[in-house]
Design a protein that fits this description.
single chain, 520 residues, mainly alpha, 21 helices, globular
Amino acid sequence: MGFYKNIIKSDYLQRTRSYIFIITLLGSVYVAYSFIPSYDSHYITVRVNNFVGKNNLAWIGHVTAIMASAFLWLIGFYLVNNSIKRDRETGVGQIIATTSVSNFDYLLAKALSNFCVLLTITFVIILMALGIYIFRGESGNFDFIQFLMPYLLVTVPSVFLVSVLAIVFEIIFGNKTNLLNVAFFCLFGVIIAKTNVGNYPGLVYIDPLGIKYLANQMVEAVNTISPSSTNNFSAGYLFSKNQKKLYFDFQGSNWSFFYILSRISWIAIGFGLLFIASRMFNRFDSKTIVLSKKKNFHLIVSEIKTEEKEIQLSKLSKTNLQFGIFPIIKIEFLMLIRKGPKWFWLINFGGMIALFLLPINQAYQIALPVLWFLQINRWADLSTKEKFFGTSNFIYSSFKPLHRLLTSQILAGFLLAIFLAFPILIRELIAGNLISTLAIIVGSLFLVSFAVFSGIISGGKRLFEILFFAVTYAIVNGVPFVDYFGGFHQDFQYLILMIAVLLLVLITSFLFRNREIKNQ
């Protein structure tokens, strides 16, 4: 037990003391507050047909547990999915590999550490939900069991499963972060889509998030008041200024023994996945760790004898000094397009073809944000790779590093974003939609600028990965609030707002990077 305690404690403290965790925790407080909208709000989070529950303790507990389960899958995976990689980079993993600790014990300790981190956010959401009930809740029976049970049966097993999946995906995909991001995005989309598929009794037992059972309980409660042939359960941020809302008094769920057993089974499945992953884990064997796929960076395992040759300075080519930014833009752009496996560009070109062939609304609001999301690994380290490779001191001492390097990084990323969005830009220009064309251009620059800004203020790429995943998923599901490229707001006023926010992000990025350079 001492080993588990030390690993979990050290891992937990290291994560919770980071700026990324603090930012995520503060964001979770705000998100938890938005889970229960006031009666005069222009959005709904959970509804059955046109019915919304009154803000009693049971309804608040059920809604926040449903939303927290999905929310922690949405951001939790990217918050904790680098634990093994961090141990490899710091050398801690190699030290542990020399001990008698088994693979399963090590992976279980890392998974439990992930679980504790996400459980901390869950606890904050529970406290916020209680605060909402105290200040905005309906008077009535204080049924704390109906408030707490959804968290114990829905959120906690769901959080444990995503903590395990973060470990399993990291072992399966390794450094192939593009594939990891795509695989998890698809998995999460399938799970959420399955929640909205009919009212089949068996679905509640094969739902990893556990929210299908609560949805059925809410549907049954509405049917006792207003029987209907359509049971349209919806969860998420549903925006509408003139939507009709009918309120009902939700008293809670009847907890089925088989449902409780199914939730325990998902925890057991998590342990099973860890056991399978432990058989694939390489125990940090340096002979099997490939540092890079490029020929010049393979791990050297044999001594290469070379003949010493005298260097003749007169035969060396003369240096040609260039103080412009165009060579740097070229280098940054080449690094962007060469990052990741070459075959991944087949997927990118397939996405660009989809921008040509899909109906314009689907191409604009679904295909384009997904195509940009596939480049998350390229955007994420635009402004952080210097620190990762230890070249920041050298680069920051060059000629005008702020104006030349940072500007070049932003422009190179912008060119890549425009290149990927080129098919839909052509379609919008042909259709004469000038506002939409400008919105895509501004959105491309904002995406890259936000990636740079996130990397500068957090010192890593984790914050951008979390936020970009959440924003992309929200856009695909039709949430207009996070529209950064004019997909849902194709008017001049919104374009001006986007430009203002873009300028604010750019100015802040330059100010923070300038301070960072001066402190070197």
